[in-house]
Write a structure and sequence with these properties.
The protein is an alpha/beta fold and 312 residues long. The protein has 2 domains: 2-115 and 239-310, FAD/NAD(P)-binding domain (3-Layer(bba) Sandwich); 131-235, FAD/NAD(P)-binding domain (3-Layer(bba) Sandwich), CATH 3.50.50. The chain is 22% helix and 27% strand. The chain contains 6 helices and 17 strands. The strands form 4 sheets. Strands 1, 2, 3, 4, 5, 6 and 17 form a 7-stranded mixed sheet that branches. Helix 4 (154-164) runs parallel beside helix 5. The protein starts with a strand and ends with a helix. The mean pLDDT is 94. Belongs to the class-II pyridine nucleotide-disulfide oxidoreductase family. Keywords: Disulfide bond, FAD, Flavoprotein, NADP, Oxidoreductase, Redox-active center. Homodimer. Residues 3-297 form the FAD/NAD(P)-binding domain.
């Protein structure tokens, strides 16, 4: 039996793994389908993590986290978790995609969130063929070309700046006339001559052919239509919480959730189910910042250690 199962390998999951193993738990497994790192690995620039003075891309930033956590004994299982259940004897059962299951004394869920679909006609058809949610991953393919970005938050503006270093022009399309990003980022975007702001507008349709995206149709609040010939469009319009593993066989959540599908926790990252903890973007009121997710993971791990010790 596992001492602790950690589901998710982003900053919250890795931090939880570090504090749990360094805190004395011997059999700690992190379940993460791909390489650990989480959403931040797709970020083009990190400059606000305390103690890290140099600007870094997300992949470089997170690589040291993995090495550090594994050095203390954290194990990584590259398999998808289908759901988590608490048994009558107090143990947790982790149901895996391969049909097998693992037992654990405690569980930390740090599955985070995923980029939300924009709901634009043609988005699904051309996803991966000109439609992307990761400028760091796909921006290079549009070197010297024009691209469009949809969104008005920090991610949309940051990735617009990143793309402006690669592409000949970036059209930033937002449904409102003001942006939700931090003022310093907004100011950088407005001053960048390679970024054209298209506000009070939405993308109605993404058009293309066998080779991929070739045109997008934009409609402003007055009903005027504008067609842009671009081979790529990047959408950054929010995140969906990855909470499916917390549903039972009947589709009911096993712990308390808020109206947005986020896990309700206290300051110790405890859910209303003893031994079940949540950390990072999946929990209520998550600031969606790496430093906060890391703090969540540390708190959840310390709480899990205390819970396990008190079960004896």
């Amino acid at each position: 039996m596992l001492d602790l199962a950690i589901i998710g390998g982003g900053p919250a999951g890795l931090s939880a793994g570090l504090y749990a193993t360094r805190g004395g738990l011997k059999n700690v497994v992190m379940f993460e389908m791909g390489m650990p790192g989480g959403q931040i690995t797709s970020s083009s620039e990190i400059e606000n993590y305390p103690g890290v003075a140099d600007k870094m891309d997300g992949i470089s930033f997170m690589s040291a986290w993995q090495e550090q956590c594994f050095r203390f004994g954290l194990k990584h299982e590259m398999i998808k978790v289908k759901r988590v259940a608490k048994k009558q004897n107090g143990e947790f059962e982790i149901f895996l995609e391969n049909g097998k299951s693992e037992l654990a004394k405690a569980v930390i869920v740090a599955t985070g969130s995923a980029p939300r679909k924009a709901g634009i006609k043609g988005e699904d058809e051309f996803f991966g063929k000109g439609v992307s949610t990761c400028a760091t991953c796909d921006g290079f393919f549009y070197k010297g070309k024009e691209v469009a970005v949809v969104g008005g938050g920090d991610t949309a503006l940051e990735e617009s700046l990143y793309l402006a270093n690669i592409c000949s022009k970036v059209y930033l399309i937002h449904r409102r006339d003001s942006f939700r990003a931090v003022p310093s980022t907004t100011e950088k975007v407005k001053k960048n001559k390679k970024i054209e702001l298209i506000t009070n507008s939405v993308v109605n349709e993404i058009k293309g052919d066998n080779s991929g995206v070739c045109e997008i149709v934009i409609k402003n609040k007055n009903g005027e239509i504008r067609n842009l010939k671009v081979p790529g469009i990047f959408t950054f319009i929010g995140l969906d919480v990855r909470n499916d593993i917390l549903k039972d066989e009947n589709g009911e959540f096993i712990c308390e959730m808020n109206e947005n599908g986020q896990v309700v926790v206290n300051l110790k990252m405890q859910t209303n189910v003893p031994g079940l903890f949540a950390a990072g973007d999946i929990r209520q009121d998550a600031p969606k910042q790496v430093v906060c997710s890391a703090g969540d993971g540390a708190i959840a791990a310390l709480s899990a250690i205390n819970y396990i010790e008190n079960q004896h």
